[in-house]
Amino acid sequence: MWDRLYSQKQLSREGLAAYAQHPLLRAVGLDRGFYRPLTVAQFASYAADVPDDFRFVVKAPSQVTDALIRESGGQARQANPRFLDGRLACESFVGPACEGLGDKIGALVFQISPLPIHGLQQVDALIEQLHTMLQVVAQAKARVPTAVIAVEVRNPEWLTPMFVAALKDAGATYCVGLHPKMPPIDEQLPVLRRLWPGPFVCRWNLNVRHGAFGYARARDRYAPFDKLVDPDPETRTTLARVIAGTVTAGQPALVTINNKAEGSSPLSVQALAAAVRAAREPR
What we know:
This protein is of the alpha/beta class. It has two domains: 8-171, no CATH class; 175-283, no CATH class. The chain contains twelve helices and nine strands. The strands form two sheets. Strands 1-2-5-6-7-8-9 form a seven-stranded parallel β-sheet. Strands 3-4 form a two-stranded antiparallel ribbon. Strand 6, helix 7 and strand 7 (173-178) form a beta-alpha-beta unit. Helix 2 (40-48) packs parallel to helix 4, helix 6 (123-140) packs parallel to helix 7 (161-170) and helix 10 crosses helix 12. The two termini are 32 Å apart. The mean pLDDT is 94.
């Protein structure tokens, strides 16, 4: 909701501080480190730009969360020997984030990339690896006890009782990923119910109309991201209900919204805030 157009250089330098002044924008997704881990100094620079009540939803590096090592264009090159490696997760992600962001961490999100076919055939073994990693991560993030550890997946095959038990035992939660690769939000909520009570973390990534590989198509349809081109009131209403119930129970709710969800993330936030307000009003 800018008063005029700004250059990319200006937005890169001053955009976060301006964003954090808005009363509805109290968190932001920090995905940059997915491609290359960020340093303590880089995290600290982000923290310096925002007030104390602002939170970051930080995405873990792909070197920990992707079963494959990929070329720059995304093509698989070879198996990743450090996939779900707890020590690497702490050294390259959890440690630097905790030191640089401190209490401004909202959630540390391990978004597991789509598994190759052979990975789908051994999900139970991967859940055991994930469980071990999360236990190590839980110890490493002890210096920021309010930080939520969340796991997002891109294959519904993960969503088993064994997966839920692994999250619960490690003190982690499930990050609802709203993406065409995953079932609609109503079909993901049973996972959260089994983890209740607990925080709510959600990343609303891409409108289902564009399909699993539709980011470029959504970008072309929605640019310059100044209006809701494809409103999704059903998803928004469900999100609002879950957020209202979560915060009423005294738990944190952290939701990030991509421009590719409905066409304009700031306008999606406004509409979601109105829906949450309505959901919390006495009937």
